[in-house]
Amino acid sequence: MAIVYQTDKRSGITYAYESISYWDKDKRQSRSKRTLSTVDS
Fold it and tell me: What is the DSSP letter of 9?
């Protein structure tokens, strides 16, 4: 699990993604699930 921060330069809003990696058995590769939240600017 990792927390990734990304800032929108136009609006100045910072978004925080919680990224969870898991193994996809069907595709036989690593995939990631991300949940989005905003951080006060």
Answer: T
Q: What pLDDT tens digit does each residue of the chain (41 aa) get?
A: 899 999 999 999 999 999 999 999 999 999 999 998 888 75
The 3-state secondary structure of 1-41 reads CEEEEEECCCCCCEEEEEEEEEEECCCCEEEEEEEEEEECC
With contact defined as beta carbons under 8 Å apart, do 21 and 30 qualify? yes
Decide: 38 and 19 in contact? Cβ < 8 Å.
no
pTM for this predicted structure = 0.57
- Continuous segment of H or E residues that includes residue 2: strand 2-7
